[in-house]
Amino acid sequence: MKKEDKEFLKELQHEMLTQDTVCQADPRFWVVMQTVRDYWVDDNVDGICIYDKDSTEIIFEDELEELPDWLKENFDGIVKCEYDGISVEIVCEDENEYFIDDIAEIENFLEEYTPGRYSICNYRDREEIVANTMFLTLRECKEHIKRNGYHYNKPHSYAMTAWRSPQVEKLYKILQDIDWDKYIYNNTWINVKEKLPDPQKWCWIWFDYGNSEGYCEKMYLTTTGKWMKNALSQVKEEHVEYIKAWQPYYEPEPYKN
Is the C-alpha dihedral spanning 19, 24, 30, 31 positive or negative? Predict the structure, then answer.
């Protein structure tokens, strides 16, 4: 495996372990969720769709509370047209009154004034997972939506779990648990001025005081930048400058090249 491939897997591992889990169990992944509209529904209605047979297009598609504005724009002879939170009240110049709270009543009104012109139905919006979308990290899912959002309707990221999938669970465990530094830097001393080890991970440290051949010691770096030989023993500040290099911990103890 090429070094750049190992670096990629190490970075992916870090992102998978540190990203927001959104309270979703591992092995978690993300998909794109979008809004889909179903027409000709009878329950859990979100709005009304009016189709103009003359122009062969949908001319109104919204909630009932928005209907008065459309009616006043498209029908002469309406004296009053208001939505009271439950129904639409219509009063016409011919003194006919209508109280509309479902599509049957809207259909009756339209059929009386414009016979045979309109077709009406209810619609309901629901969320649906977009096929062929799958991301290992939340970041990549969001970036995909940002780049390709115009393909979807009200898209957002959605976390899922590969439930009872032993192969996926095993793959995730390998990706998340393996110490990639051992494969990338094994038996290679890394200058501490160029790169420091990941915090809280044991590694071999090379001390060089300039008047000897130096020596190797096992220790780890804390999240606050302190070099520790163990939980109770910290490298003294005056000795830190003599720490020259490190490499991932493995047995047996390495020799400086």
Answer: negative
Do residues 106 and 67 lie in contact, with contact meaning Cβ atoms separated by under 8 Å? yes
β-partners of residue 100 are 88
For residue 175, which phi and psi values (nearest 5 degrees)? Answer: -60, -35
- Which contiguous run of DSSP H or E holds residue 204? strand 203-207
pTM for the complete prediction? 0.68
Low-confidence ranges of the chain (pLDDT < 70): 183-186, 211-212, 255-257
80-119 residue pLDDT tens: 999 999 999 999 998 889 999 888 889 989 998 899 999 9
DSSP 1: -
Give strand pairing partners of 65.
Answer: none
Q: How many CB atoms lie within 10 A of CB 85?
A: 6
190-196 long-range Cβ contacts below 8 angstroms, 24+ apart: 190/245, 190/246, 190/247, 191/244, 191/245, 192/243, 192/244, 192/245, 192/246, 196/221, 196/246
CA-only gyration radius of the chain, Å: 33
CB contact at 8 A, 37 and 123: yes
Six-digit token string for 165: 């999938």
Q: What is the DSSP string of 207-230?
A: E--SSS--EEEEEEE-TTS-EEEE
How far apart, in whole angstroms, are the C-alpha atoms of residue 229 and residue 224? 15
